[in-house]
Design a protein that fits this description.
CATH architecture of chain B: Orthogonal Bundle
Strand order of the largest sheet of chain B: 1-2
Largest interface: A-B, 40 and 43 residues
Mean pLDDT of chain A: 89
Radius of gyration of chain B: 19 Å
Oligomer: heterodimer
CATH topology of the largest domain in chain A: Rossmann fold
Helix content of chain A: 40-55%
Strand content of chain A: 15-25%
Number of helices of chain A: 13
Number of helices of chain B: 11
CATH topology of chain B: ABC transporter involved in vitamin B12 uptake, BtuC
Radius of gyration of chain A: 23 Å
Number of domains of chain B: 1
Number of domains of chain A: 2
Largest sheet of chain A: 5 strands, parallel
Helix content of chain B: over 70%
Structural class of chain A: alpha/beta
Number of strands of chain A: 14
Distance between the termini of chain B: 53 Å
Shape of chain B: globular
Chain lengths: 397, 297
């Protein structure tokens, strides 16, 4: 009896071991060469999760496309994914983990400006190219070394419009429509503060006065106090600089207080989540955006149109939902990095140089013209103004 | 329409009262469990999120009638509260208060993680209970009908709780358990059942807070963390374990935040509110309405 049990036990161990060996062989036999690995670091949870997950999906479309075409020189492209939890400390931990445990040639992400700022120093020290999705310009502009104002990042790039250009676009639209005195409300973290710096520079260029500036905490549930202060200054336009649920709360609060001044939001608001958080109060809110959300309203002469419509169809098919404006940033970053790897092979320094030399790349967000001085490459003419209308978006002229 | 100063003040107070009412309900939830068991139940935060997300699922995804959804969500979260007690809390090997508190932190993580798996991490909106047309009040402040719902439901909940604890046999039994567990058991009160009820009650209260704020602030799997923390602060401000203190603490905290944002600086509003909390605790460690000796931890 006992022997029988022993027999069963040992045969079980053998079977298990065999299974493990087969599994290991199988996974290594599948591809002729080691895959090329890139790290994808996104805000998959936390307050920016809706942006991070959408951008991850966009990056996956780019990677699938490469692998379906046979990979890069016969090597499969693989993304090692990490979550920043929308938290700068966790972002740095995720970055260190991925760099220590995997041999990655480039980084895509992170999502939030705060996380990007936290990761930036480490990325520069490690000398690995990173194409970020973060809105704030500080990640490119702030000196790396406080003592040397010219110490600009060498390895860091970002795909979304420069916040300065997005802000400029709003101010330009305002001055064309007779809005002269505005209030500015922003979330009290990296992205919001970056917006505050920008509005102070951009508004005077278009003869727009910032009469009031108010901050709120990203997790706040009510902004009527701040908006009341802004309204008391008698403004004829309001800009709200934030992403996440606050976009909707502000739209609701503006309607509740009966404020007649039109509301403008940032270049991250053009996303289906906006309607989820704002509901009917979202109607009429205006914002700068990529063309991706108004692809079918573009004139046929637009050179991005075909690319945008093809991508949107692929995105809808794969994920069965509508892409938001920030999906474009995710896809552009991934395609530019992939093109660079295709061109120069899996070498960090060469990839960096190739990204920096990207000229005239027609992306979903616009035409990228990179240079050592411009690690974003987009300009104000790539941006369109859109208006939230009936659960969708209307292209403004 | 440009608001003058008195209109602004009126607006700040109205806003503060609304948010304060929510903090008060959350604080009550903390107090009920504290009184029954002596522990701080950090899963209270998750009751708020779950209330909001149940409501969203029923109303938006399954198109259930609003009032029915409200009751179902409340009962649902109360059941989860009860399950927490019947499962981990009752069967914990150690009944040490600190251990049980850490247990609630663990439970709260499990619930939050599961909620994220179920509903995803997006913030979602829930329709207002009766429209969004702003109402202009005397004094020039405006509110939306949802604010009135928040007030009305908070007052109703407080009155019901008061009636329950002062007038009913079960309420009295729960209070007796809070005062002295052993003595209560000796008089024939089933102490375990009272503790079970306290978790269920607290779950229902958290759910109510989550549901009434959801149309104003949107809701998500982790929306309860911040509200829970503020509610906890309100409970401490008012005197931990004291029901009247919870209401007072919640409203003071809400108004301080709103006035702080409006009159001083929107950047420092939380700092102002918590500074006052520190001052109060420094002068009167038991909180505003707290009595008895305070224990140093």
């Amino acid at each position: 009896m006992n022997e029988e049990v022993e027999m069963k036990k040992s045969s079980l161990i053998i079977v298990t071991a065999a299974a493990i060996i087969c599994f290991m062989l199988g996974s290594s036999l599948g591809y002729s060469a080691e895959p090329i690995k890139i790290a994808g670091i996104f805000a998959l949870t936390g307050r920016a999760a809706h942006i991070g997950t959408a951008q991850r999906d966009a990056v996956m479309i780019a990677i699938d496309e490469v692998n379906q075409q046979g990979g890069i020189n016969g090597r499969k492209l693989e993304m090692v994914m990490e979550d920043t939890e929308s938290n700068p400390t966790k972002a740095v931990m995720a970055l260190k983990k991925v760099l220590e445990s995997e041999d990655v040639v480039a980084i895509i992400g992170p999502t939030l400006t705060g996380t990007a700022m936290a990761m930036r120093g480490f990325i520069e020290k490690e000398k690995i190219p990173a194409f970020m999705h973060s809105g704030g310009d500080v990640i490119l502009l702030a000196p790396l070394n406080k003592k040397d104002p010219n110490s600009r990042p060498k390895w860091t790039f970002k795909s979304p419009y420069k916040a300065a250009d997005a802000m400029g676009k709003i101010c330009q639209y305002m001055s064309r429509h007779g809005i002269k005195k505005i209030g500015f409300i922003y979330s009290d973290e990296g992205f919001g503060k970056d917006g505050l710096r920008n509005v102070k520079v951009q508004a005077p260029k278009y003869r727009v006065t910032v009469a009031a500036q108010e901050a709120f905490q990203p997790k706040d549930v009510d902004m009527t106090a701040q908006l009341t202060r802004i309204e008391a200054k008698g403004v004829d336009g309001i800009i709200a600089w934030t992403v996440g649920p606050a976009m909707g709360i502000i739209a609701k609060n503006v309607k509740q207080l009966g404020i007649k001044a039109p509301l403008f939001e940032c270049h991250g608001a053009g996303d289906p989540i906006f309607w989820k958080v704002a509901g009917e109060a979202g109607e009429g809110v205006m914002m700068p955006s990529t063309k991706i959300v108004v692809g079918d309203q573009l004139p046929d002469s637009d050179i991005q149109k075909k690319k945008i419509i093809d991508f949107v169809n692929a995105y809808r098919k794969k994920f069965n939902r509508e892409p938001g404006t920030m999906v474009a940033y995710g896809a552009d970053a991934a395609f530019i990095v992939v093109n660079a790897i295709k061109k120069v092979g899996p070498d960090r320094a060469k990839i960096r140089d190739a990204i920096e030399n990207t000229k005239g790349y027609v992306g979903l967000s616009g035409i990228y013209n990179m240079s050592p001085m411009d690690h974003n490459g987009l300009s104000m003419t790539d941006i369109v103004m859109i208006k939230a209308t009936k659960g969708g978006w209307k292209l403004l002229k | 329409m440009v608001m003058d100063f008195s209109q602004q003040i009126a607006q700040y107070i109205i806003t503060g009262l609304t948010i304060g009412a929510i903090y008060a309900i959350v604080a009550m939830g903390f107090n009920i469990i504290h009184n029954a068991t002596g522990i701080v139940n950090f899963a209270q935060c998750e009751f708020i999120s779950l209330g909001g997300m149940f409501m969203y699922s029923l109303v938006v995804l399954f198109k259930v009638n609003l009032a029915v959804s409200f009751v179902l969500s409340m009962v649902g979260v109360a059941l989860i509260g009860a399950l927490i007690e019947v499962g981990p809390i009752r069967h914990a090997r150690s009944k040490d208060i600190i251990i049980l508190i850490f247990l609630t932190i663990g439970i709260s993580e499990v619930i939050r993680g599961s909620a994220q798996e179920i509903w995803g991490s997006d913030n979602v909106g829930v329709p207002s209970f009766s429209g969004d047309t702003p109402i202009h009040l005397l004094g020039g402040a405006t509110i939306v009908p949802q604010h009135i719902w928040v007030f009305a439901i908070t007052v109703l909940v407080m009155l019901l709780l008061r009636y329950f604890f002062k007038r009913t046999l079960m309420g009295k039994a729960m209070r007796a358990t809070a005062v002295n567990r052993r003595a209560a058991a000796l008089t024939g009160i089933c102490v375990n059942r009272m503790i079970l009820f306290s978790f269920a009650f607290s779950g229902a209260l958290g759910a109510v807070a989550g549901m009434i704020i959801a149309p104003i602030s949107t809701t998500s799997y982790d929306t309860g963390i911040m509200l829970g923390l503020k509610g906890f602060a309100a409970a401490i401000l008012g005197g931990y374990g004291n029901f009247a203190g919870a209401i007072l603490g919640g409203i003071i905290l809400g108004i301080l935040e709103s006035l702080g944002a409006g009159l001083v600086s929107s950047q420092y509003k939380d700092a102002i509110a918590f500074f006052v909390l520190l001052v109060v605790l420094f002068l009167k460690p038991t909180g505003i309405m707290g009595y008895g000796e305070s224990e140093r931890v």
